[in-house]
Amino acid sequence: MGTPFDTAHGKLSIVATPIGNLEDITLRALRTMKECDVIYAEDTRVIAKLLARYEIKKPLQRLDAATEIKKADEIIVRLEAGEHIALVSDAGTPGISDPGSRLVARVREQVKMFNLFTKIEAIPGASALTAALSIAGLDATNFTFLGFLPHKKGRQTALKKIALSEIPVILYESPHRILKLLKELEVLEISHVTIARELTKIHEEVVDGSPEEMLAHFTAHSEAVRGEFVVIVSS
Ligand code: SAM
pLDDT class for 3, splitting at 50, 70, 90? Predict the structure, then answer.
C-alpha cells in the first residue's frame, strides 16, 4: 500500500488480466479494479466481460495502440488531480506486445520533470510468454523474447538471428501466419520448436518437434490452426 504522500498526484496501476481462463486473475487485480476511479482498456468490450464475471462496475475508457499517446496526456491530467487509474490490455500483461509502455514512459517523464508524487504500480499476473515457458519443459534460465516478428521489413534479418541464437527464442504468432512461420523455420534448418496454443483455454495444446513435423501436425489437424500461438525456437 502506498502512503497518501506518494500518491498525492494519483496512482497508475498496470493490471495483468487472464489470457483465456477468466479464473486467472489475482485478488489484487480484482481489488484494484474495484477501487480505482476508471479503467483504461484496449477494448472495453473484452474487459467488460471480465468485470461482469466478478460483478465489478467501473467507468471504462478506451486506450489502444492508436490512441495511447493522446490518452496518456488525458491520464496525466487525471493523475495530477489525484485519481487512481487502472490500465488493462485485452489479455495478459500490458506492455508485453500490448499497449502500456508508452503511457508508462510518458507518466514517468512527467513525474521526473515536475517532481510529482504519482505512484506507478505493477499488478502482475498472467502472460502467454511465462505460461508457455512454464510448460515447455525447456531450460529457460536465459531466453530471448521477440514477440511478433515484423511482417515485411526486418523479418529475414530477425529470422537469421533466431537461427543463430544459442538460447531459446520466444515468438508470438497469429493463426493466419503460423504455417508461414513454420515454413520459414524449416528453410533455416531449425531443428526444434515448441508450440503452445490456446493456453488456459479448452483446446490448450503443446506440441514440439522439427518445423517439418509441426507442419505435418497442423496440416493433419487443420482445426488446430486456430486460436493463439506461442512459438519457442530452441535450437
Ligand atoms: N499481453 C499479452 C501477454 O502478456 O501475453 C500478449 C498480447 S499479444 C497482442 C497477443 C498474442 O499473445 C497472441 O497472438 C499469442 O501469440 C499470444 N497469446 C495470448 N494469449 C494466448 C493464449 N491463451 N495461448 C497462446 N498464446 C497466447
Answer: confident
